[in-house]
Design goal:
single chain, 290 residues, 2 domains, 8 strands, binds NADP nicotinamide-adenine-dinucleotide phosphate
């Protein structure tokens, strides 16, 4: 990479490290007030290798800053009922402050039933319809961690969203949809694209801020971008490859996230931040006091 391109990078890894340092201090303050260690429970169904790698990275960060991790692993031929029972057991366990159901969940299990069993207070990845509805309306709730981490990254790099043309590619309930809502709440004019969108390159060409979350390696080409666009690549494909063709995009973009080291570390830092916030709330300690 040329040095002029180096200055365009939105370094999520560095910001995430700062967030984790702040969290370490907050957890120590929480414990000094007689509080328990924040505890994050994760349920994984089956043995998806990408999920496994994500959980290993997340558990490592947790142990570095003092968050306790519990893992529940269910066989891939488990039933929806068994999965919901596992969630319910964690909901009823007062020593667990935060619950994640790792996705993808193998077919034919109804992951939505599992998500809906997580109450707002412990839904640190904003997966339930109640959490998502509140995020859309701008009401207090934990938002989904990847879009929340992206919003934090945009704030850190002082990207102006008020009145900006923002394009989101991907409409999944955990990424594209909450992302579009958060951008709308930040007063951007948002276009949400998906696999039925006609002429994606033309729409992308109008974006001041582009968020790509489609799961297609190097799909978005630099030649489609408006010069000076801010490009956020949430894609994470096999071999650490994003959804944006970085080499052709970096010359056109004003700012761009690298893969790896952009959005991914921000997602993990946000999960951990939400876990500490959930723990503080459940212990009745104002987060702002920490
Ligand atoms: P998903 O549920 O598979 O959704 C993909 C979205 O992309 C869908 O809305 C799909 O449209 C759309 N899409 C697919 N092909 C398209 C095309 N040719 N043109 C326009 N839109 C297209 O994926 P996801 O869970 O949202 O994840 C998206 C990506 O983000 C993946 O690479 C995933 O690994 C990554 N991710 C990263 C993090 C992180 O922390 N960095 C976290 C979560 C996910 P339809 O709705 O019409 O099918």
């Amino acid at each position: 990479m040329h040095s002029s391109e180096d200055g365009k990078l939105m370094r999520g890894g560095e910001l995430a490290r700062r967030i984790l340092d702040e969290l370490r201090a907050k957890i120590a303050a929480l414990r000094a007030r007689g509080g328990a260690a924040p505890t994050l429970a994760t349920i994984m169904v089956g043995d998806d290798p990408a999920s496994h790698a994500y959980l290993v990275a997340k558990d490592k960060r947790c142990s570095e800053i003092g968050i306790e991790c519990r893992r529940v692993t269910l066989a891939k031929d488990t039933t929806t009922q068994r999965l919901v029972e596992a969630v319910t057991a964690l909901v009823e366990d007062a020593s667990v402050h935060a619950i994640l159901v790792q996705h993808p969940v193998p077919e034919p299990i109804d992951k939505r039933a599992a998500f809906e069993a997580i109450p707002l207070a412990k839904d640190v990845d904003g997966v339930s319809s109640a959490s998502l509805g509140r995020v859309i309306l701008g009401m207090p709730a934990f938002p989904s961690c990847t879009p929340a981490g992206i919003m934090r990254l945009l704030r850190e790099y002082q990207v102006s969203l008020d009145g900006a043309d923002a394009v989101v590619v991907g409409r999944s309930p955990i990424l594209g949809r909450p992302m579009a809502s958060m951008l709308i709440n930040a007063h951007a004019t948002v276009t949400l694209c998906h696999s039925r969108t006609r002429d994606l390159p033309a729409i992308i060409g109008r974006a001041d801020v582009l968020i790509v979350a489609m799961g297609k390696p190097r799909f978005v080409q630099g030649g489609w971008l408006e010069r000076g666009a801010v490009v956020i690549d949430a894609g994470y494909n096999a071999g650490n490859i994003g959804d944006v063709d970085f080499d052709s995009a970096v010359g056109q973009a004003a700012l761009i996230t690298p893969v790896p080291g952009g959005v991914g570390p921000m997602t993990i830092a946000t999960v951990l931040e939400h876990t500490v916030q959930a723990c503080a709330a459940q212990l009745g300690v104002p987060y702002t006091d920490l």
